[in-house]
Design a protein that fits this description.
2 domains; Beta-lactamase; 8-stranded antiparallel sheet; 10 helices; alpha+beta; 361 residues; 3-stranded antiparallel sheet; single chain
């Protein structure tokens, strides 16, 4: 299948399939709380399904807002890639050229490319925003990443590394002169009309909040609402994620599987990145071992993702709060999964993705 072919999701087939997978996984104890999934191509309306209830006991709706956790990382990555496209940043240049205080303890040659591909070698001791409450300010979290040493020579292997995203966010702040949380609206969510997706830098719970258990409510309060964590702090909806994914599909060039300026499958709305940048995101930079499975990684994204039927040029990211996001550049499919099932079993992701592809005409 090529990106130029007309395709759609069969709503009469997909809706019941998603409901059935949710029901089976809940019965098996693989899902807890509540969740929502949305899937779409560039043609037709997204198809959504929900299960369970929010922490407050309300039946889950598609407009409920969930903690994205690590699906925040692709947003930060695209902010940085937009700066590179604007000529403000060389991805292969040392980060220390822009943030001099980063260039210490062996990190003098770490580049933005290394941070985006999780090949920087930054010591994971600098991951102060996850795990037990650290009581740190955002600046202190950033400082831990700036002060970090290296575990290995940059570029020599893959090691998933969240602290580097504090540094990437700092690049956005310094190069634009505006805080990265505000620039998220300027660069991505505002132009796309993603009104339910943002950092929540406040003490009160987010509006339309789906919630979590007591342990992760503490995580939300300290590491998300107070820290504005650029590796895991955005709150959003499945509908907004589908909008984000469809915008990426619309960035495809004619040589990269359709979506060129005259292509009827091209998405409407702002061009987030150029076709060349999108192709770079989908080009394998490194492979490695992560969370019990082999992964391939491009600029800011895992490639291929979970499930049996997606293309190798699928941009994928998952989050520890039971979230998943697929943007299949070759088959033209977007899937957004948000749940309150922290540390969701991999098989749930795969079964839901397979159900979507099975309804693709």
């Amino acid at each position: 299948m090529t990106g130029r072919q007309s395709r759609y999701l069969d709503s009469k087939l997909l809706g019941p399939r998603l409901d059935a997978v949710f029901a089976a996984c809940a019965t098996a104890g693989l899902l807890r709380g509540g969740g929502a999934i949305a899937a779409a191509t560039l043609e037709g309306e997204p198809i959504t399904a929900t299960y369970g209830a929010t922490a407050g006991g309300e039946p889950t709706r598609p407009d409920h807002r969930f903690l994205l956790t690590s699906i925040t990382k692709p947003f930060t990555a695209i902010q940085v890639l937009q700066l590179a496209e604007a000529g403000l940043l060389d991805l292969r240049a040392p980060v220390a050229a822009t943030i001099p205080e980063f260039g210490r303890h062996g990190k003098e040659h770490v580049t933005t490319w290394h941070l985006l591909t999780h090949t920087s070698g930054i010591d994971l001791v600098a991951n102060t925003a996850e795990g037990p409450s650290a009581g740190l300010t955002p600046q202190q979290h950033l400082q831990a990443a700036l002060d970090a040493s290296l575990n290995f020579e940059p570029g020599t292997r893959f090691e998933y590394c969240s602290p580097g995203f504090w540094v990437l966010a700092e690049l956005v702040t310094r190069l634009t002169g505006r805080h990265y949380t505000d620039e998220l609206v300027t660069m991505i969510t505002g132009p796309l009309g993603m009104t339910g997706t943002r950092y929540e830098l406040q003490e009160s719970a987010p509006e339309r909040w789906a919630g979590a258990n007591a342990l992760y409510e503490a995580h939300l309060a300290e590491q998300v609402r107070r820290a504005g964590y650029p590796a895991g702090g955005i709150v959003g909806t499945v509908g907004d994620l589908v909008t984000f994914g469809r915008a990426l599909l619309g960035c495809r060039g004619g040589a990269g599987g359709g979506g060129g300026a005259g292509d009827p499958n091209r998405g409407a709305g702002p061009q987030l990145v150029s076709p060349a940048t999108l192709d770079a995101m989908a080009c394998r930079a490194i492979a490695g071992w992560y969370q019990g499975r082999t992964v391939a990684w491009g600029l800011g994204w895992e490639l291929g993702g979970l499930g049996d039927f997606g293309s190798d040029r699928t941009l994928f990211h998952y989050g520890g709060s039971g979230t998943g996001f697929w943007v299949d550049l070759d088959r033209g499919v977007v899937i957004a999964l948000l749940t309150t099932s922290w540390h969701l079993d991999w098989q749930v992701y795969g079964r839901l993705a397979n159900a979507v592809y099975g309804a693709l005409a």
